[in-house]
Design a protein that fits this description.
The chain is an alpha+beta fold and 376 residues long. It has 11 helices and 17 strands.
Length: 376
């Protein structure tokens, strides 16, 4: 066994025997996300490196502590990428394990799928110190219950990811970004119309960068695909309404800022009582009648806003009414420690499943206790 992996396993076995909580941490770029940060630090950054990469097979296997930047640099050399555009937050260098554990995706999520859709297999250490292998390196290798994808978004509460196999994709031959001046309701309606047409839509973002009167409300749409398809779509979409095509260099910088929550909408100082809320809704959900400015992504499926944490019930009721959910993405009080009740409550049936999974994978309850829900 690898020396570093043995060290990690020994730390887990000791913690399980003593019922000592462990706080799993890679680069720490998502410490703000979730509820509690507690327990003895279990640092994964020393267990790093690309285990195998087969560009012709579109598969890469990495150790969990591998910096995301290191993986993406290797993929770029071969003209490939992580299509779901995992975000980065702050100056810290996120890891591949954290990417999977958090399950967060960037602007292209609505068109290409999320992290879960690209995880082929994982290796992990459970709360008994056992090394488990799920999935493999091909899509059709999955049979029965897909435990590897269960780890996506689990925030490390079920076990410590050690190795991850991911599907990668070639970089699209062509890309273009169009911008239209539209209010939110009109932008959503237009996105729904375009979504019903054979267009290479890849990402969208509707935003007004500040709340000053008469500030333009803009819809940005990114197209990716074959050169002919992208050029044809640009011509077609620009004839349907007044819009412009952006320079790709500037647009690329803007999309990266959108992915990493660095647009002015996110970085403009807000009142101390304002948390950053994330609403996950059906793409066809209408504009919500809420008193706070919003930024809309994923063709209407993801909506951001700054509102007080005291608006929790109002926001969750509004989201639930259209078939969605609302969560506190970044706390108002302290962006490094999270907040209580940040995720929507689970139904009794789903909560029971969570508890049974936790009991099976982590019987001593040592992994990231309370990170997802206070008592799970």
């Amino acid at each position: 066994m690898d020396t570093e992996l043995q060290h990690i396993t020994d730390q887990i076995n000791t913690a399980a025997a003593q019922h000592t909580p462990l706080r799993i941490r890679g680069g720490g770029s998502k410490d703000f996300y979730g509820e509690a940060l507690q327990g003895e630090l279990l640092d994964t950054t020393a267990y790093r490196g690309i285990v195998s990469y087969e560009p012709s097979e579109l598969v890469v296997t990495v150790r969990a502590g591998t910096p995301l930047a290191e993986l993406e640099a290797a993929l770029t050399e071969k003209g490939q990428c992580l299509a779901f555009e995992p975000p980065r937050f702050g100056p810290a260098n996120g890891t591949c394990g954290g990417m999977v554990a958090a399950g967060l995706s960037g602007p292209a999520r609505a068109s290409v799928g999320g992290v879960r859709d690209y995880v082929l297999g994982v290796q992990l250490i459970n709360g008994r110190g056992e090394q488990l292998i799920f999935g493999g390196q091909v899509m059709k290798n999955v049979a029965g219950y897909d435990v590897s994808r269960l780890m996506v978004g689990a925030m490390g509460t079920l076990g410590l990811l050690t190795d991850i196999s991911l599907k990668v994709l070639p970089v699209a031959p062509a890309e273009a970004t169009l911008v239209f001046e539209l209010d939110q309701a009109s932008a959503l309606a237009q996105l729904h119309r375009w979504g019903a047409q054979p267009l290479p839509l890849n990402a969208s973002c509707w935003v007004r960068d500040d709340t000053a009167p008469n500030t333009p409300e803009l819809l940005f749409v990114r197209l990716r695909g074959a050169i002919a398809a992208v050029e044809s779509a640009c011509t077609r979409m620009l004839t349907e309404g007044p819009g412009n095509r952006m320079d790709n260099t500037q647009a690329g910088s803007d999309w990266s800022a959108c992915r990493d929550l660095k647009l002015p909408f996110f970085t403009t100082p807000a009142a101390e009582s304002m948390a950053l809320w994330r609403l996950s809704l059906p793409q066809t959900a209408p504009m919500l009648d809420l008193p706070w400015p919003q930024l809309v992504e994923w063709h209407g499926g993801q909506r951001w806003l700054r509102a007080p944490e005291s608006a929790r019930e109002q926001l969750r009721q509004a989201a639930s009414a259209v078939g969605g959910s609302a969560s506190v993405f970044m706390a108002a009080s302290d962006a490094t420690t999270g907040t209580k009740n940040c995720f929507s409550p689970l139904s009794p049936a789903i909560e029971q499943i969570h508890r049974r999974l936790k009991a099976e994978f982590d019987p001593a309850g040592i992994f990231n206790p309370g990170r997802l829900y206070a008592d799970i």
